[in-house]
Each structure stands twice: as C-alpha cells, then as structure tokens.
Give the backbone structure.
Amino acid sequence: MTLNEFFEPYSSLIEHIEESRNYWLVRTDSGKYYSDFSNNNYISIGWDEFSNINDFRNKAMSDAMSNYIINKYPKKQPRRIYNQIRKFLFEIKVGDVVMIPNENSKVINFGIVTSEYISRANNINDTCPFIKSKSVKWIKEIDREKLDPYLFKMMQAHQTINSANEYAHFIDRTMYSFYEKSGKSYLILPVNKEEDIPAYDLSQFINAITNLVPIANVLQKDSLEDEYNKRDLDIKINVQSPGYIELKSDDAKLVPRILTLLKYLIGNNDCNTERLLEKTSEEELRKLKKDRDDLRKRFEDVKAKLPSDI
C-alpha cells in the first residue's frame, strides 16, 4: 500500500467549502413556516404584491417603487421592505448557506441554496402562501441547546433576511465535522463528558492528539513529503459539558492525515490498526502501540469520539 492509498479513504471525505459563499439567517414568520421550508426544501419571502423581480434590480429604490410600497404598507418603511426583497432575489445566491429558526428559535436548520428565484404562484402545496422562493438542500438541524455559543448573538437578528457572514467560521464547524476552506483543514471532535474535565486529563488528551503529528512523519518517511511539526496543528477548545475540540492546520493535508490515524488507532477495526502497525520498524512499532493505547485512554478520559458523520 502506498502512502497516498493509505491516507486516501478518509481524505476523500473532506467537505470543500468555497471561500466566496455568503451566510444568511432567514426568518420563518415566527416559526409558522419552518416545517414547510424544512419538509419541502425551500425558503420563501412575503410581500407578494411585489413579485416583478425587475422592480428590484437596482440598489437604489425608485420614487415610483417607493410610492407603490407606501400605498400598500403606509405604516412600514418602504426602503426596508425594498432592501429585504432585493436581498432575497439578488444577493442570496446558489451555494450560499441559509439558516432558518422555528418558533422561539428552539431548533435551527442549516442548508445550502440550490436554485435562483422560483415563483411558487402555481405550485403551492403547503401552508406557506409566499410566492418568491429558492430551493434549499438542508444539511443539519440543531437544537438551540446544542448550538455553538458563538451563534447565540446571531439569533437576535429579527429582520426577515439577515447577513450572517461574521459568523461564517462558527457556522461552518456547526454544519461539517471535517472540512477544508481557504487552503486550511479542520476537524471537529465531540467531547461528551458531562462533569468538569480535570486539567490534567484535558492536557494529556491534547498531547495525545499532537503526538499524532510525528506518527504521520514516520508513515511518510520514504516519500517526498515535507515533515510536519507539532506547531503545524492548532487546537481550539470549547468543552462546556459537553463540547468539542477543533483541530486546524494551514496545511490542507495534515488534518486529513490526523483523522486517518485516529480512525486506524482508536477505531474498532483491529485489522486496520494492524495494517498501520505493519508499516513501521520494530522499534517504531513498540512506540506506536504505546501511543495507540495512550490515545485510546485519553479519548476515554474526556469522553471524546470521532464525529458520527465521518
């Protein structure tokens, strides 16, 4: 087995995220249409009186359009309505991330926009009456109590369409456990210990993770690959009973290799573990077996595990 063949099975699972994509929080009329959007794979916006998309192509609202909106909604701000509709029609694009909350934001659904503007005027088969729509592929539904704490502030935005670009990193790691973006690779490891984690146990867990870096070097010693340094792997911690450990590297190959080693060393497939052990010398084999046993113990100490979606 070549080095690339060894690492490929798990490297191919990585989610590649476009740096240019945008992030949006889309309200569901206080949760009224959350089920419609989620079950039928779309998002939609109201103000159906204004359904000619050509009226919203310009960033500057025309006087005629302003008067039209005021006549329909005399107690509302015409520019706010115009901007909300325009954002939905022209700024939310295919490939962007959208999030929708249910009533009281108890559950948030995360998805990817898959179509440009769609008129549902002749295709309304649920309780939502809105015409202006876009198709969405939903990725993950999260209970608020399990939501990344950094996203709580985002949920305080109350307009129908809200930009969430400032929360991009926290949204990415909520949607995906293993991904690459801007040449950097990431792995999110759940930590499920309910009670406080002793500082010693946490420090030993982190050491066990960073000790995988020289193991990766051992495996590629006969290749032309550059050696990694333990400082090439960054770790962020959020273990608030329970929480997660975020692994990140500016080298796009390193985190996939760490994941491969984790799968081989702490997985239940002993055949895979033995295949890994066979790739080392007798001296390295003894050390690797010790590292494997230590890694398994450290994962158990903090109740860490590999992500369920990998």
User: Anything to note?
Assistant: The radius of gyration is 24 Å. The CA atoms of residues 285 and 300 lie 23 Å apart. The longest strand covers residues 132-143.
